Amino acid sequence: MNAQTPQVIVVEDEPQIRRFVCAALRKENCNTLEAATAQAALEAAANGEADLVILDLGLPDRDGIAFIRDLRTWSQVPVLILSARVTEQDKIAALDAGADDYLVKPFGVGELLARTRALLRRRGQLGETGAIRRFGAAGAEIEVDLARRRVRRDGVEVHLTQTEYQLLTAMLANEGKVMTHRHLMREVWGAGSMGQPHTLRVYVGRLRQKLEANAAQPQHFLTETGVGYRFQS
Amino acid sequence: MRLIPPPLSPRRRYLSATALCLVTTLATLPMSGHFDLANIVMLFLLTVFACAVYLGRGPAVWAAFLAVALFDFFFVPPQLTFAVADAQYLVTFAVMLVVGLIASQLAARLAERTEEAQRREAETRLLYELARDLGGALAVDQVAAITGDFLRRLEAKASLLVVETDAGGVDFRCHGGHSLGTLEQSFARSAYERRAVVEADSLAGMGVATVFLPLLAPTQCRGVLAVTPHTDDADVVRAWRPLLEAVASLVAIAIERLHYAEAAQRGEVEIVAERLRASILSSLSHDLRTPLTSLVGLADTLAQRQPPLPQDAVEVVGIIHDQAQAMYRMLSNLLEMARLQAGGVTLNREWQPFEEIVGSSTRLLAPMLTRHAVEVDLSPDLPLVQFDAVLLERVVCNLLENAAKYSPAGSRIRLSACVRDADLEVVVANAGPGFPPDRLDSVFAPFVRGEREPAVAGTGLGLAICKAIVEAHGGTIAAENRTGEPGACVRFTLPLGAPPTVDIEAAE
Fold first, then answer.
1. In Å, how far is B127's CA from the nearest CA of chain A?
2. Which of A167, A217, B213, B334 has its Cα between 20 and 30 A from that of A13?
3. Do residues A189 and A203 touch, judged by C-beta distance below 8 A?
């Protein structure tokens, strides 16, 4: 990838939406490639070195979810979904197919850029994240030492159980991405486990108690209602 | 029973037997003298036999005696008297009589069997035709008409009582025939409840139904067939029983078939309607979101333009942005209400901590809550509660949004949750002017708003949606004004139920 000017493919059939999304991205110092159809988008992705695909699920020529599945067979480029669909099943289907995040229309430019930055940063960090991760502000400054399996809050060591620690590392590894309940349960309890969604929720609650300044209004371990969770530092 | 052509009346049969004997006598008279008397006896026996076969047992016996008398009178010397010269003819008479009687017995029994077989065959054919006709019936009224036609041949009327079960109990609906009186209704009810034929002989001849047959279909009793015979002869009616029972079972099957056909059709119509409604809502939602997305996004683009717009233009752009967002929220509420009111919403209930909803709602609503201090007070160790997270998030968001809209900037909004009895109780309160006291109950009705002349934009759907969602979860919701201090407060509950256990590993 090009560290200075990331390449973003914007796949959206509505010209007005495409217009402001591209304008916002260009101001973020991104190169944009516009596509109005899935076919054009696949060609663009195959030719250039895309760093991010922003995809409208309701394309005229093809189902967006099938497009993601196709793309995922040969590319790991992050995919941000723009969706006018509202049901949680649609979001889960898109995430399970390989999308990384979604924005429900209508969305503001601020939100769009925040998600874009998170996904681009993730791509930049792939394989080169350090052993020590830090997040949080005063009152709940967290430092996770992945090499020593040690977690500190404001310099004081926090004790995490085995499962809590696994959940924490799974979420750290997928920073900026929405993880569905199923995905997280697979990461923490293994593919064949009989993990229950409510067990996962209880563990997320315990992590928040230990690592958030205010567990009822979390800043890092965020709930994506009906879909899953997202970690943001 | 008039299933086969009616036989001659008894009187006419005896007359016919007499006539046959007289004809035989007249025919054989000229032969007298030329033929041996033994041969003439044969002709008389033949006549008796013919009477037995065609006219039945009684006329045959009568013919046997008459034949002996006529033979004696006209042929046995001395002729034209009943005197008998030669005693040996007494033997002839005796044998003639016995043979005639035996032959008549045998022949008559054969004839009866034949008639019985024909009657059964006719019955079977008619039942088959009835079954065929019922098979083509498309409505219960048609079934009643076909059954009525059938019973008309028996000189009876049919009333079909079809059971309609509702929450209140069993109700009969009458098809065809006359509408039944109270007494008949009670007989019918008794037949239905006992699942057995009820015969009301005491009512015979009064023009009312006397036989009540339960319609026993394979899965359940579908009603009662009430038969009103024209005859008042209870024996005749009793003889119909097997046939009537067969008719009742055919009718029962026909009604059951109609019932399932109707259920299947109704199910299909509902599926189509549901699909149509879902597709209308989703395309409405899609088509309205697209221009709103452009509006919000383009307003943002303008606001962040370089070089910046003049201050007043930035303000206008901000208003455009906020109004588009407000319009989107109204649209969401409208679509949500349409979905909830259509009754097609299935809850996706899962056990989860209520805390998650608090976190996601306050984050979603953060742009609207910037001018208020939100105080969250959740009692520690709240149990898991079973609810649909997306819908409950909508409830909490609507309540927080209302609390913010109807209270002055800088005031405090309180969101608290605790366990009360067997419920989770959630309270959202603000420090605004409160609800008008006379409208506390009506604020949950759709399109009703707290103030008569609202100064705040809104559709009046927010609380109606909250109520629909909370009630779908089996909870309650109430609006009140805070006591002691100004402010409105909405309180809702969710039943706790029995949460699943969670295996939390022991701390290592």
1. 56
2. B334
3. no
The number of beta carbons lying within 10 Å of the beta carbon of residue A223 is 25
As a whole number of angstroms, the distance between CA A207 and CA A135 comes to 14
Higher pLDDT, A170 or B204: A170
Tokens of B400: 């927080």
To the nearest 10 degrees (0 to 180), the angle between helices A88-97 and A181-189 is 50
Backbone angles phi, psi at A151, to 5 degrees: -125, 130
Cβ atoms of A151 and A165 closer than 8 Å: yes
CA B440, CA B443: separation in Å to the nearest integer?
Answer: 6
Amino acid at B32: S
User: Tell me: the pLDDT tens digits for B331-377?
Assistant: 888 888 887 877 667 788 999 999 999 999 999 888 888 899 999 99
Q: Which residue in B416, B422, B421, B350 sits closest to B380, CA to CA?
A: B416
Residues B315 and B311: their CA atoms lie apart, in Å, by 6
Tens digit of each residue's pLDDT (9 = 90 or more) over A29-67: 889 999 888 888 888 888 877 899 999 888 888 888 889
CA atoms within 13 A on the CB side of B128: 6
| Strand-pair partners of B35 | B32
DSSP-derived secondary structure letter, B94? H
Q: pLDDT tens across B249-289, in order? A: 999 999 889 889 888 988 888 888 877 877 787 777 778 88
Chain B environment of A224 (Cβ under 8 Å): 360
> How far from A134 is each of A155, A172, B189, CA to CA, in Å?
11, 10, 80
Query: φ, ψ for residue B457 (rounded to 5)?
Result: -65, 145
Q: Calculate the alpha carbon distances from B292 to A212, B103, B315, B326 in Å.
A: 35, 105, 19, 10
- CA-based nearest residue in chain B for residue A218: B359
Residues of chain A with pLDDT under 50: 1-2
Q: How far is B379 from chain A (nearest CA, A)?
A: 11
Within 13 Å and on the Cβ side, how many CA atoms surround B300?
Answer: 26
Tally of CA atoms within 13 A in the half-sphere of B31 that contains its CB: 14
Mention every residue, 6+ apart, whose C-beta is less than 8 A from residue B358.
A216, A217, B376, B378, B396, B415, B417
Residue A67 CA, chain-centre distance (Å), reads: 18
Structure tokens at B506: 């022991």
pTM, two decimal places: 0.64
Q: B178 in helix, strand or coil?
A: coil
Q: Are B386 and B349 in contact (CB under 8 A)?
A: yes
CA-nearest residue of chain B to A23? B301
3-state SS assignment for residue B244: helix
Cβ–Cβ below 8 Å for A20 and B298: yes
